[in-house]
Each structure stands twice: as C-alpha cells, then as structure tokens.
Amino acid sequence: MADRNSLTIDRVLKLLDFDHGSGVFTWKVSRGKARAGFRAGSLRSDGYRIICIDGCRLLEHRLAIFLTDGAWPIGDVDHKFGDKSDNRPSEIRAVSVLINRQNQRIAKRNSASGLIGAFFDARSKRWYSNIRVGTERLPLGRFNTPEDAHEAYVKAKRVLHAGCTI
C-alpha cells in the first residue's frame, strides 16, 4: 500500500484524467469496481469526495492541488466559496488552518439562530456578536435581531479576516 508522499504526478496521471474546467476526476483505466471513463472516487457523508489510488485514500480537493501546484498542500485546502464539490483550481487554495477557519460560511449545527456570528444571551434577552482576531475576541455589540448580529459579524469579518471570501 502506497502512502501519499510516495505517489507521483506521473502515477496519478497514468490512472486519472483531471478536468481543470470542472474539477472532476475520471478513471483512465478500469481497476476493480472503478471503470475507465467514469467519475473517480466516492462521496463521503461530510460532502467531500475521496479517491483511492494504490490503497491510499485521498481527498479529491487535496489531489487537485497536488496536480495543479505539483506538491501536496501543507495545511488545509479551502474551498473559497464553500462548495465542497467544486474542485476547480480557481475555486480552491492551499491555506493555513487559520485562514481556512476564517472562511467559515455557515453557522454551527447547534446555533440558535442558524446564522453565523449571531448568539443569544438569555440573561439580557438580546442577540450579540463577537469576532476572534488572533487570540483576542472582540465584541461587536448587542442587537434586537439575529439578522442584525449576523450582519455586524459579516461586516467585521470582511475587514478583519484575511481568509474571508464572503
């Protein structure tokens, strides 16, 4: 079984075609259940696609960076506009973990409002927002609606987070 670091671009290109315009990988050769001409990989429950080459499981977006940049990405790969299925080189970038987190676009599952950056304060019965910059958490204010708290957060995010593409 190969590991990621032993895979070469030549080996990948012997097995796969990569369409830079669509970000889609297709098999060049039939191998096991995989058939030549068909889309490579399978969809995981988290929305990312995974491709297995020589026993090595590879995330499709990391493989796209590898073929585009000629090296495996260090750190994270960010989908600039939040679409996990869009692996076109123009839509993904190798970034640090911090920059990737700064490009968060959706609220966490347990969010009361469903809006990023809007939190409810049960004591004051108002919505509030804050933003992290480095190790500091900056308060953005208290608001009457979750939409206002969210709007303040997004406005601050665009200014203070270098990785933000919202």
Range of strand content: 25-35%
Tell me the number of helical segments per DSSP (H or I, 4 or more residues long).
Answer: 4
Strand order of the largest sheet: 3-4-5
What's the gyration radius in Å?
20 Å
Number of domains: 2
Short précis:
With 166 residues, the protein is an alpha+beta fold. It is built from four helices and ten strands, in the order H-E-E-E-E-E-H-E-E-H-E-E-E-H.
Task: Describe it.
The protein has helices spanning 9-15, 60-69, 97-102, 146-160, and strands spanning 16-19, 24-27, 42-43, 49-53, 56-59, 76-79, 92-95, 119-121, 126-133, 136-143. By secondary structure, it is an alpha+beta fold. It has two domains: 4-95, Homing Intron 3 (I-Ppo) Encoded Endonuclease, Chain A (Alpha-Beta Complex); 99-160, 2-Layer Sandwich (GCC-box Binding Domain), CATH 3.30.730. Strands 3-4-5 form a three-stranded antiparallel sheet. It has a three-stranded antiparallel sheet with strand order 8-9-10, with helices on one face. Strands 1-2 form a two-stranded antiparallel sheet. A hairpin with a 4-residue loop joins strand 1 and strand 2 (24-27). The protein is elongated, with a radius of gyration of 20 Å.
